[in-house]
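Limitations

Structures in this collection are predictions, not experimental determinations, and the ligand pose is part of the prediction. Treat each record accordingly. The example that follows, with iron/sulfur cluster as the small molecule, is included so readers can see exactly what is and is not provided: the inputs are given verbatim, and the output is the predicted complex.
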Amino acid sequence: MNRLDALRGTTPQKPHDARAIAALAANPGCARRALLDGAGIDKDAAARHLGFPAPFGQSPFAITRGNVFEALVKADGCAELLRMLRELLGLPIAEVAYHDVENVGAHLRHAHTRALFDRAARDGGDAGTVYDHPLLSLDIAGHTAYLEPDVVAFQLGGRFHIVEIKSFAVIDGQADPSAVAAAARQAAVYVLALRRMLRELGHDPLRVAHDVVLVCPENFANRPVASPLDVRRQLGVLERQLSRMTGLDRLLDGLPADLTFDLLPDEDGLPTRPAAELADALRGATARYAPDCLSACDLCFFCRDEARQEGATDLLGRHVRDELGGVASVGEALGLADGARDPAEGQEEIARLLRNAERLRRECLA
Ligand code: SF4
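Predicted complex:
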């Protein structure tokens, strides 16, 4: 049994989906999350057992709305989608071909997807083609995760474009920035998976465009609108995070040999491990809490509580934490600001800035 298996113990492994992989890129500096995801641990089950459940997952209403919108975009062989892609990507009007990979049996879908993309990449001069329900894969710390992008469009000119269909609205050309950021992270997972597939097949991975096509309803109506979305930055973060996960050995080396996050599930799958013991084990892996965790990680309330108890500057957000570089707690920052605490080696500059800030604050209050 390797160290990651030992970390998970008897708890069944939780497979990664694109949403979970995308969330990895949301906090690349957190060792706790890297270890939990690398070992395939169910963070949601752990958070519930610890008494810190996070309200993640879409509401049934949102899921229904999303399904209805996707069905509308894909109705009649993706007729509405093709209309938008013709405008956005210049897919040739008369020659677009449509492949629904879902028609193939589930166990063959991945192999069939590979064969289709291999052929499309070889016949680079072919006309535009749309692939519905392709099945891609991505290796996450030694485990294969299967991923299903909404659609992939193959453009005349030899480039593949991931199409991401989302049900949040674009109003007067603007959409909720956090929803767009989450969609970009998720689309980057598909871009990376498709690039790796092309590389394995001996093709140029850069034939998968970093410009994905985001399809959303426009102005509260269900009429879809397509916009290009550049995911280069998300791709960079994701690749760094995944390579960090394959190098988990360095993180594991710093942990006690008997550390485990095992939930010790009973035969009904319910955790039996004392919650306090599990909490202690988790505290053994360093977290890097930031308020953004509240929208991206199941353990957010547990880690926020821990950061509160420690008075960590993490609670103030990444920007403040980075500005305070090396000052770990709010108490320490206040002590440096009012002079009650002498700066440690390397803290002289931040201590000077904090004292100046404190002096200005006092002058303003006076
Ligand atoms: S919630 Fe905790 S474990 Fe998850 S990313 Fe944030 S700090 Fe890391």
